[in-house]
Design a protein that fits this description.
Blueprint (H helix, E strand, L loop, with lengths): L6 H28 L5 H22 L3 H15 L3 H13 L1 H26 L8
Helix pairs in contact: 1-3, 2-3, 2-4, 4-5
Length: 130
């Protein structure tokens, strides 16, 4: 397998993410087509988070950088909205579970607040929030 730092390795990683992204986006679209709208995020994020955890464990034992970015950044990154967060959290959890808990709470609240502020800034004046 090419090294992540080599030019050839970087090109291979780019191609792996590109192709994996196409696969993941297509899989997500199938879930959208075949699932009730209110269940889509639950389905893709739970499947994606489970898969990310399993892949993290697998790639701790086996070095295959191109395949890892294909599956994690490519497929799961475009399939879910949560898998990258789960992967980062897992990395922190292995080092410091307390910090990982603070990270999870902090980023979740921050993202909700950012979405709310973005909504408030761009909504029409006088328009009700709910």
């Amino acid at each position: 397998m090419p090294s992540i730092t080599s030019v050839k390795g970087k090109r291979m990683n780019f191609l792996a993410v590109f192709l994996g992204g196409a696969v993941g986006a297509t899989l997500r679209y199938f879930v959208i087509l075949w699932s009730p709208a209110e269940a889509v995020l639950w389905i893709v994020n739970i499947i994606g988070s489970f898969s990310m955890g399993a892949l993290q464990a697998y790639y701790l034992q086996k070095s295959a950088p191109v395949w890892k970015v294909f599956w994690t950044t490519g497929i799961l990154g475009s399939f879910t909205t949560f898998s990258s967060f789960s992967a980062e959290w897992f990395t922190y959890f292995e080092v410091n579970p307390f910090y990982a808990s603070l990270y999870a709470i902090g980023i979740t609240i921050s993202c909700f607040l950012a979405a709310f502020i973005g909504f408030l800034l761009l909504r029409k004046r006088g328009e009700r929030i709910v």
